[in-house]
Specification:
It contains 3 helices and 4 strands. By secondary structure, it is of the alpha+beta class. Helix 1 packs antiparallel against helix 3.
Length: 98
């Protein structure tokens, strides 16, 4: 079974303090769903081409279905509701190779 990954890129965060509630709730939801943070905001990044060199988060799940279920969970929906108005990010759920 292939692993599943959440990949998030945050193009700009004007006020990081506004993400405190989301970060707390999302961290709990990810942990409860068996997710493991592999890289997070503050990790070193080298971006190429149109890449964004700031604020990348990579979370691993045991399989793709688990990653999708974690996103659709009530706990993560609560976290999403805590994101500030107008907040922008590039988020994907990706299936690993084998």
């Amino acid at each position: 079974m292939s692993k599943g990954y959440w990949v998030s890129v945050y193009p700009a965060i004007d006020d990081p303090a506004t993400l405190a509630a989301y970060n707390t709730l999302a961290g709990r939801a990810v942990a409860a769903a068996g997710g493991r943070v592999l890289a997070s905001i503050g990790s070193r990044i080298v971006a190429h081409e149109a890449g964004i060199a700031d604020r990348v988060v990579l979370i691993e799940f045991d399989d793709f279905e688990q990653a999708v279920a974690a996103y659709e969970s009530a706990a993560y929906r609560e976290a999403l509701a805590a994101l500030p108005e107008g907040f922008e990010r590039d988020f994907r759920i990706v299936e690993g190779l084998g």
